[in-house]
Amino acid sequence: MNRVLARKQLRTNVCGTTKIFRRTFSTHPVSTSGSNEKSNAKTNSIEDDSPQHDIAIVGGGMVGIALAASLASKPLTKHLNVAIIDNNPLLGRKSTIEKGHPPDPRVSTVTPATISFLKGIGAWKYIEEQRHAYFDKMQVWDYTGLGYTRYNAKDVDQDILGCVVENKVLQSSQLSCVQESDLQKTIYPARLNSMNMLPSSSLTGLGEVPSTTDLFMRGRLAKLELSDGNNVYAKLVVGADGSKSRVRELAGIKTTGWNYSQNAIICTVEHTVENFTAWQRFLPNGPIALLPIGDKFSNIVWTMDPTEASDRKSMSEDDFIKAVNDALDYGYGPHPETTGSGGSSLSWLTGDVNISAKERFETPPKVVKLSSERMMFPLSLRHAKDYVSNRVALVGDSAHTVHPLAGQGVNLGFADASALSRAIAEGIALGTDIGEANLLKRYEAERKPANIAMMAVLDGIQKMYAVNFGPLNALRAAAFHGAHYISPLKKRIISYASGEQSLPLFS
Ligand SMILES: Cc1cc2nc3c(=O)[nH]c(=O)nc-3n(C[C@H](O)[C@H](O)[C@H](O)COP(=O)(O)OP(=O)(O)OC[C@H]3O[C@@H](n4cnc5c(N)ncnc54)[C@H](O)[C@@H]3O)c2cc1C
């Protein structure tokens, strides 16, 4: 009897695959694979021939694809039938870096914890084949000249503090893992328009293999309507569709948050020498970061008020380069006094002085050329009140959007993807319906406190540096000195920013 059922399901899988190819692959070469006869995936051809999936991931950005790749890497989830819904053209082509081309301005600083995750799902080997830049030193200072902090990977006995990678490389590397896996995957080059699901009711009275319509009517499947007119059904819908998430909106999940009255300008710049350090200086209107991205290139992330941002975006290339060099040197205020002796008045607090406490203040390498367009992004903080509801889970920016000042946004999203794939695997091991809110709540319980803690830290830093006020300036100076010299504090900051310590700095 089981064998008959298995044969029946295999037949419907094959049938479903053919339909999907005909209906949705006219513009993108999309493949499905995997031959697990036990898969629940099938298309019911009597009442509703729309494809049915275990999971529909809405949004194939870095985090959506990370979830698919994480599912593909686990024995319990690698044969699932997964739909990825996104009309982003990047999903339809393999991104390769052409030699000599400057890096794309959209990059992410990934933490050691993210690198471990990407190694675990098999994506890091593809990233290593393309452009990326490890860095082992970081310098943070502000325009008042009252102090600076240097961080060195050796402070925590590590080789690196992080790595800067182009977003398209992160995305395409994970996509390669998905494409080479056994996961039954279908990419729908469309957008989600609407979503319907009904309250759950008993399955009694249905046949051995209930139809898609029956399962939908009994609340076991969500129905998604796509912008190209197709419908798909899934047991679980994952919103990985960014800060303006349609899934979140359709699921009725509220958010809290605010817009910062700040925009970020990002671009690629070139030096005459290679940059190996991540630099960040806090200016009166927001921080400017200069991040290494390999060869003689760096990436600029410069936060400022919206009017200044529009001016900086449209000013001549020469004026922009001069403004960047000013902002990273003597513009707005003096260099901090270089102590660099390791014999600070604060060292008595620790007894041991970390390696970077002996490092002198340095001036970043000069920018000589603008190597990409300047792109501008409005900045906001947004947090979903719930990460899950019945048949829905949110990951990445759809659940939380943070200020980019510490380069943590997508790192939090990767941690979400990892946690959700683990919860799904646990559900499968227990034979639970993977769309059930009770199972999904395990994922929420793991990620919400960690994300809220990081959001609070980042928002606190943003506010602390957004004000020019005497006593607060002194406090900032004390913070620089404390972080620079107090060894245990510095170690905790590095391990928190590396994603290796999940909760507060002062536990
Ligand atoms: C200036 C700046 C610098 C940053 N630097 C860093 C950094 O250094 N390190 C770091 O960790 N983070 C950084 N971030 C944050 C990081 O970019 C985001 O956290 C990350 O892009 C979120 O990824 P995501 O996949 O969740 O969402 P997104 O990247 O927004 O992807 C969402 C996807 O969903 C698709 N989509 C949207 N709506 C629909 C729909 N209705 N139907 C189907 N598909 C849909 C979109 O096409 C898109 O492909 C930075 C952000 C900014 C603005």
TrEMBL record:
<keyword id="KW-0274">FAD</keyword>
<feature type="domain" description="FAD-binding">
    <location>
        <begin position="54"/>
        <end position="327"/>
    </location>
</feature>
<keyword id="KW-0560">Oxidoreductase</keyword>
<dbReference type="Pfam" id="PF01494">
    <property type="entry name" value="FAD_binding_3"/>
</dbReference>
<keyword id="KW-0472">Membrane</keyword>
<keyword id="KW-0503">Monooxygenase</keyword>
<feature type="domain" description="FAD-binding">
    <location>
        <begin position="370"/>
        <end position="454"/>
    </location>
</feature>
<dbReference type="InterPro" id="IPR000689">
    <property type="entry name" value="UbQ_mOase_COQ6"/>
</dbReference>
<comment type="function">
    <text>FAD-dependent monooxygenase required for two non-consecutive steps during ubiquinone biosynthesis. Required for the C5-ring hydroxylation during ubiquinone biosynthesis by catalyzing the hydroxylation of 4-hydroxy-3-(all-trans-polyprenyl)benzoic acid to 3,4-dihydroxy-5-(all-trans-polyprenyl)benzoic acid. Also acts downstream of coq4, for the C1-hydroxylation during ubiquinone biosynthesis by catalyzing the hydroxylation of 2-methoxy-6-(all-trans-polyprenyl)phenol to 2-methoxy-6-(all-trans-polyprenyl)benzene-1,4-diol.</text>
</comment>
<dbReference type="GO" id="GO:0106364">
    <property type="term" value="F:4-hydroxy-3-all-trans-polyprenylbenzoate oxygenase activity"/>
</dbReference>
<feature type="region of interest" description="Disordered">
    <location>
        <begin position="26"/>
        <end position="50"/>
    </location>
</feature>
<dbReference type="InterPro" id="IPR036188">
    <property type="entry name" value="FAD/NAD-bd_sf"/>
</dbReference>
<dbReference type="GO" id="GO:0071949">
    <property type="term" value="F:FAD binding"/>
</dbReference>
<dbReference type="InterPro" id="IPR051205">
    <property type="entry name" value="UbiH/COQ6_monooxygenase"/>
</dbReference>
<keyword id="KW-0999">Mitochondrion inner membrane</keyword>
<dbReference type="InterPro" id="IPR002938">
    <property type="entry name" value="FAD-bd"/>
</dbReference>
<dbReference type="GO" id="GO:0120538">
    <property type="term" value="F:2-methoxy-6-polyprenolphenol 4-hydroxylase activity"/>
</dbReference>
<comment type="subunit">
    <text>Component of a multi-subunit COQ enzyme complex.</text>
</comment>
<dbReference type="GO" id="GO:0016123">
    <property type="term" value="P:xanthophyll biosynthetic process"/>
</dbReference>
<dbReference type="InterPro" id="IPR010971">
    <property type="entry name" value="UbiH/COQ6"/>
</dbReference>
<comment type="similarity">
    <text>Belongs to the UbiH/COQ6 family.</text>
</comment>
<dbReference type="GO" id="GO:0016712">
    <property type="term" value="F:oxidoreductase activity, acting on paired donors, with incorporation or reduction of molecular oxygen, reduced flavin or flavoprotein as one donor, and incorporation of one atom of oxygen"/>
</dbReference>
<dbReference type="InterPro" id="IPR018168">
    <property type="entry name" value="Ubi_Hdrlase_CS"/>
</dbReference>
<keyword id="KW-0831">Ubiquinone biosynthesis</keyword>
<feature type="compositionally biased region" description="Polar residues">
    <location>
        <begin position="26"/>
        <end position="44"/>
    </location>
</feature>
<dbReference type="GO" id="GO:0031314">
    <property type="term" value="C:extrinsic component of mitochondrial inner membrane"/>
</dbReference>
<dbReference type="GO" id="GO:0016120">
    <property type="term" value="P:carotene biosynthetic process"/>
</dbReference>
<keyword id="KW-0285">Flavoprotein</keyword>
<keyword id="KW-0496">Mitochondrion</keyword>
<comment type="pathway">
    <text>Cofactor biosynthesis; ubiquinone biosynthesis.</text>
</comment>
<protein>
    <recommendedName>
        <fullName>Ubiquinone biosynthesis monooxygenase COQ6, mitochondrial</fullName>
        <ecNumber>1.14.15.45</ecNumber>
        <ecNumber>1.14.15.46</ecNumber>
    </recommendedName>
</protein>
